[in-house]
Amino acid sequence: MNVLIVDDEPLAQEIIETFVGNVPSLNLVGKCSNAIEANEALRNNQVDLMFLDIQMPQMTGVDFLKTLQHPPMVIFTTAYSNYAIEGFELNAIDYLLKPISMDRFVKAVNKAQELFDLNKKEISEVSAGGDDFFFVKSDKKLVKVKYNEILYVEGLKDYVIIRMEHGRVITLQTMKSLEEKLPLHDFRRIHRSYIVSLSKINAIDGNVVEIMEKGVAKHIPIGKNYRDELLELIDKKKL
């Protein structure tokens, strides 16, 4: 699991970082001292689990979590026990009182790991095939989207636009959450803001993918962090 530490106390950051380093299943992607830094870190990294301090300057951890539409799993860390009920009302995985012991830390991580593994299993079952469609909420309705009709997906802040052969669907969710719904053997993320259907790629020209949309060539950029994986996949399909 990718981990983000959010705490305004350097010593507390150091202790949690040490604990994280002692658990092989955890990968630290960043440390932040306040909600503003944490918000930016969440935008730029895939974060599965956030250790979030409650008492911080400018904005508390509780208030920060309330601002997130698609938060990662959260374990609150604090020196004050009176926030426990509110923390669990926000679906926090656990609540660690400072000073945090290693055994209590591991117990909290195990709870998160169990949920993480369960979600991965569900995603894997979707990716393996079966149904040829899924539903998304759009304009107060649940709309059926068929995998084989998707051309590409475009991210726009907290929304995604699913571009299809006969129209589009706009839904309130993150690119990451939608990416997890799509079968890996048919779809690939090629840019921070784009996921494409491999079967709908008409051509690749340099750092651009070409997909025909309503008879017009749509040119989609390939992000440098995604280029090698995409070309490797394409190379396997070459005659």
Structure report:
With 239 residues, this protein is an alpha/beta fold. It has two domains: 2-127, Response regulator (Rossmann fold), CATH 3.40.50; 133-236, LytTr DNA-binding domain (OB fold (Dihydrolipoamide Acetyltransferase, E2P)), CATH 2.40.50. Helices cover 32% and strands 35% of the residues. It contains seven helices and 15 strands. It has helices at residues 10-21, 35-44, 61-67, 84-89, 102-127, 175-179, 227-236; strands at 2-6, 27-32, 49-53, 73-78, 94-97, 133-138, 141-146, 150-156, 159-164, 167-172, 187-191, 194-197, 201-205, 208-213, 216-221. The protein has a five-stranded parallel beta sheet with strand order 2-1-3-4-5, with helices on both faces. A five-stranded antiparallel beta sheet has the order 10-9-8-12-11. A hairpin with a 2-residue loop joins strand 14 and strand 15. The radius of gyration is 20 Å and the shape is elongated.
Topology record:
Layout lengths: L1 E5 L3 H12 L5 E6 L2 H10 L4 E5 L7 H7 L5 E6 L5 H6 L4 E4 L4 H26 L5 E6 L2 E6 L3 E7 L2 E6 L2 E6 L2 H5 L7 E5 L2 E4 L3 E5 L2 E6 L2 E6 L5 H10 L3
CATH class of the largest domain equals Alpha Beta
Mean pLDDT over all positions: 87
Please tally the β strands and state the result. 15
Fourth CATH level, the homologous superfamily of the largest domain:
Response regulator
